[in-house]
Design brief:
- By secondary structure, this protein is mostly beta strands.
- It has a single domain, classed as Porin (Beta Barrel).
- The protein is 11% helix and 68% strand.
- The chain is built from two helices and nine strands, in the order αβαββββββββ.
- An eight-stranded antiparallel barrel has the order 1-2-3-4-5-6-7-9.
- A hairpin with a 2-residue loop joins β7 and β8.
- The longest helix is centred in the first third of the chain and has 13 residues.
- The protein is elongated, with a radius of gyration of 18 Å.
- 28% of the residues are buried.
Amino acid sequence: MKILSPLTLAILAAAASSLYAEAPRYGVQGLVNIPLGDLKDFVDNKPGPGLGVHGTFDLGNGHMLRPRLDYSVYPEATFGSLKQNASNLSLGGDYLYFLAGKPEGLYFTGGIAIVRWSFETKDAVSKVSADTTKLGLAAGAGYQWNATVGTELRFVHSRIDSGFQADALQAGVTIRF
């Protein structure tokens, strides 16, 4: 008999806990991504906008799960005749812990995602595109101003290969319905 992985057990435990939680709420987020490290050099330090959708599952006592789908794009960077851009589509989930014990005020968050990266480099005669799917990790803090509006600041990390890390500081506004 195969033993379940710790990640699978955590997901099952969270799903079972959600049976006793409040009804889920859904929302959208607007993001600004400030590139760091290798990504910063690739896009010439140009911040990129992003949009996303999410659900929130209040597990009670300040614990919340938030599955999310985000899309971010970085503007084209120009280096002489060379032009480069990057974008990503991210599907993942976050764990939120509210210090007040209920979904309001200051919270801390950590998340994991599958990130589909697209990179393009072109010049006058050629264009090279590369797509890759990698693991993404995030950690940060936020503030839920009321039942509908929140703000958040997260560090997002995704290693493309041993010589390229696509890290960003992500600021966002969330709106829940």
